[in-house]
Design brief:
Layout (H helix, E strand, L loop, with lengths): L7 E3 L11 E7 L5 H4 L5 E2 L1 H11 L3 H8 E3 L6 E3 L10 E2 L2 E2 L7 H5 L16 E4 L2 H7 L28
Antiparallel strand pairs: 1-2, 2-8, 3-5, 4-5, 6-7
Helix pairs in contact: 2-3
């Protein structure tokens, strides 16, 4: 819909536009890993490189040497991909760096997405309040990788609930 931010739609399209309210749509990740298999750049910041290197038990220099490449725009680094185009950290059907995955990964598909993502991604859309949307899409927390810390579940890409 033109003019609306990603994840938002008009509450009651049959009403007059002056009465229509934009309702956020939150996409609950099902960990299908389709986004990990989609070709493209996963940009990484210095803080993300530090967290990823710590998580993997590597020096930052070794991490950069073996797991990153210069971005297409040459303005930073991005993660390398496997020869088949999937993320270098995709291990079978799991992200091997889940607790410290880059912000770009944490934000998909709620704060950014590519056209037609629904054809591949199994995230479940649901309408939520503005407050709930902000809470669920809060990704500004710094990455942590220390073994002493127990990372909180990622609200954007947490495993599906196993509760009955």
């Amino acid at each position: 819909m033109a003019g609306l931010a990603p994840g938002r739609k008009r509450a009651n399209p049959s009403r007059s536009s002056r009465l229509a309210r934009v309702v956020p749509t939150y996409y609950a990740c099902q960990r299908c890993t389709a986004c990990c298999r989609w070709p493209g750049e996963v940009r990484v910041t210095e803080a993300e490189i530090q967290a990823l290197a710590r998580h993997l038990g590597l020096s930052e220099d070794d991490f950069i040497q073996y797991h990153t490449r210069v971005r297409v725009d040459r303005l930073g680094l991005s993660l390398m991909e496997k020869p088949n185009g999937e993320c270098i950290f995709l291990g079978g059907a799991d992200c091997t760096v889940q607790p410290v995955k880059p912000r770009q990964c944490r934000e998909f598909p709620n704060l950014w997405r590519f056209p037609g993502f629904q054809d591949y991604c199994q995230a479940v859309p649901r309408e939520v309040s503005d407050e709930e949307y902000l809470r669920l899409t809060q990704t500004d927390r710094p990455p942590t990788a220390s073994p002493e810390s127990s990372p909180q579940p990622d609200p954007i890409c947490a495993p599906p609930s196993t509760h009955a």
